[in-house]
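Feature request, filed as a ticket because there's no other form

It would be nice if the structure record came with a short human-readable summary line next to the tokens. Right now we just get the raw output. Example of a typical job, pasted below so the devs can see what we mean:
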Amino acid sequence: MLPKQKETILAQLKSDEKNKNYQNRYWFPYKDFLDPADDFTAFSCENLDGKQGYLTLIENLRSKDETAKVFVEVYGYEENQNEQFIYADTLIIFSKLSLSEIEQIFNEPEDIFPSDIGEETDFSRPTFIINENSNFVPIVPDDSFFDGFSVYYCWWD
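Raw output as currently delivered:
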């Protein structure tokens, strides 16, 4: 994740916590969040050791649907004297594949299969992609961003 993205999400999560505003959803492009060398991000309780397996799953998906867009939904941050990091356990997938095809891809590995996979249908909460320029790009359901795609979630417990 780029330094400016880190500053942006930390400031936003701290502001949301201070204001008790837990309505917004924040998504990062998967490559920004799942960088195996970046210990600022933790996915499904894995800081560095486990990210490659998730990247491999996403690449398997993208080999079957080159148009797929994959994001990581950030849930919060941890901060102590020595470190700070953000964490997540859900992928958001825009794909032209069916739910059963998505399930087949993500349930294939025996060691990191998800706890739940389903279709994402509730976009009532404000949702933003934090892009490589650290801009908040709003996701609006009737936007062309959704054209031709089904939206799925893939969650690890």
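Something like this underneath would help us a lot:
The longest helix spans residues 3-18.
The beta strands are 25-29, 41-43, 69-79, 84-95, 116-119, 127-130, 136-138, 150-155.
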